[in-house]
């Protein structure tokens, strides 16, 4: 048994084949869904590889779930709120540089 050193995609996001399969189960293809929304037939295909909010919402609605369910990693990045560490009053006071005294 050998282990692969290739980096793996983060767990959680559906594989593109799974998204297409779910669309087919719901009676849609990506081309039909694109055309139904007034887009060029191949337009929604790009949402399988790259984040695109509008396309993700259209695909998820056709499947019958939320986009966050299909692409949790994309939405985790979108809803990320940075946590800032608390700043004390002492750290805000002016401290002249040591180089300035030379």
UniProtKB/TrEMBL annotation:
Pfam family for this entry, one: HTH_35
Keyword field: DNA-binding, Transcription, Transcription regulation
Gene3D superfamilies listed in its UniProt record: lambda repressor-like DNA-binding domains (1.10.260.40)
Assigned protein family: Belongs to the ner transcriptional regulatory family.
Highest taxon above the source species: Bacteria
InterPro entries linked: Lambda_DNA-bd_dom_sf, Ner_HTH_dom
Residue intervals of the Ner winged helix-turn-helix DNA-binding domain: 13-80
Protein's UniProt name: Transcriptional regulator
């Amino acid at each position: 048994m050998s282990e692969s050193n290739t980096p793996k995609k983060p767990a959680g996001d559906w594989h593109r084949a799974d998204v297409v399969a779910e669309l087919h189960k719901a009676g849609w293809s990506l081309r039909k869904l694109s055309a139904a929304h007034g887009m060029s037939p191949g337009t929604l295909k790009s949402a399988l590889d790259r984040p695109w909010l509008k396309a993700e919402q259209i695909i998820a609605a056709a499947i019958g779930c939320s986009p966050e369910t299909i692409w949790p990693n994309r939405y985790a990045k979108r809803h990320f709120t940075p946590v800032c560490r608390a700043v004390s009053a002492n750290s805000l006071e002016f401290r002249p540089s040591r180089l300035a005294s030379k």
